[in-house]
Amino acid sequence: MSSLETIERIADGGEDVLQRVVDVLHDEVEHYSWVGIYLVEGDDLVLGPWRGPQATEHVRIPVGQGVCGAAAASGETEIVDDVNADPRYLACFPSTRSEIVVPISHEGRVVGEIDIDSDRPAAFGEDDRVLLERVALVVAPFCN
Ligand code: SME
Question: Which of 19, 36, 38, 95 could form a disulfide with 49 if both were Cys (CB 3.0 to 4.6 A apart)?
């Protein structure tokens, strides 16, 4: 890649920054089994960068559906200790036991969200919420 192309890619930001953030979360936090960022497009959440053992079939989720759609609709973080006990849950991976979804807001509106599945039951607590809500602030400008 030429230096101009490299600089254009850095300035373009977006996908590349989000992918690197997803990779760090997945690789450095043991109980984060699958990490993805969904971006709001109209009334839908569209899957952007993700990292985990398997692709999900849920690449487009209407706002209001699933745990993801609930967090996007309310703008509030959702923590589900037992996904099998939550009627809103849209199943992706048979191994998933718990989930956290953290909205990403920019200039007063939800522009995306961080979605993390764990193979451990009740894996997510206040430490995760604090970490991921800060990450959401950092990545917000790149969710356009
Ligand atoms: N479980 C989510 C769907 C996305 S997958 O976890 C990647 C939900 O209930 O909205």
Answer: 19
